[in-house]
Write a structure and sequence with these properties.
199 residues, alpha/beta, 2 helices, 20 strands
């Protein structure tokens, strides 16, 4: 659902996919090849939210801020299931883990990885390539070339997903039994540990 608010109409590039069960409201700008999953809420009612090219905001995420703020989710930022971004800026090609909360005026640097269920306090600033975990979140080490290669490969799947959704996603009635010819899905992405092992 796309909503105007106080004269602001979201601007969404035609190559980006917003699931019909997501809500994008007001002063929101979404660039090319972005994916917005079902249940996501991107609320530009009190300030501007910019998603640069290739960003994904997955299922049940919230992006919002205090009045008068503007925030940017930079190119290829990857926001995992259930995360909350409240008035924070995300650097290029960063990964925000599932169910993480990032608070107001926080700055996540380029190519940072924030572990699942982390809590990033307001006004926290993290330099590029930081591996950030915990509650409150802190840097435990630097992101390696191998880790960022794995992350980038995963984000590319989400950058392909809008086209796949446009081409094949449709509402249907469910089947009542499993068809004998049901195809097996291919394995095309591995966990970080599996990714390391195959190299």
């Amino acid at each position: 659902m796309i909503y105007a608010f106080k004269g602001y109409i979201p601007v969404i590039h035609e190559s980006s996919f917003v699931h019909p069960l997501a809500a994008v409201t007001g002063n929101v700008i979404i660039g090319k090849n972005c994916y917005i999953g079902p249940g996501a809420a991107i609320r530009g009612d009190w300030g501007e939210i910019v998603l640069e090219d290739g960003v994904n905001v997955q299922e049940n995420c919230t992006v919002h801020m205090f009045p008068g703020k503007s925030i940017v989710l930079s190119e290829s930022a990857h926001v995992g299931h259930g995360a909350v971004i409240h008035g924070a800026n995300l650097g290029k090609n960063c990964l925000i883990g599932m169910n993480t909360v990032i608070m107001d005026d926080a700055e996540i640097g380029d190519e940072c990885i924030v572990g699942a269920m982390s809590f990033v306090k307001a006004k926290s600033v993290f330099e590029k390539r930081s591996l950030i975990v915990g509650n409150p979140a802190k840097v435990i080490k630097q992101v390696s070339d191998e880790m960022i290669a794995w992350k980038t490969k995963g984000t590319r799947l989400y950058q392909q997903l809008p086209e796949d959704c446009f081409n094949s996603l449709k509402a249907v009635e469910p089947l009542r039994e499993i068809p004998k010819s049901r195809p097996k899905q291919e394995e095309f992405y591995k966990t970080l540990e599996e990714f390391k092992e195959q190299k």
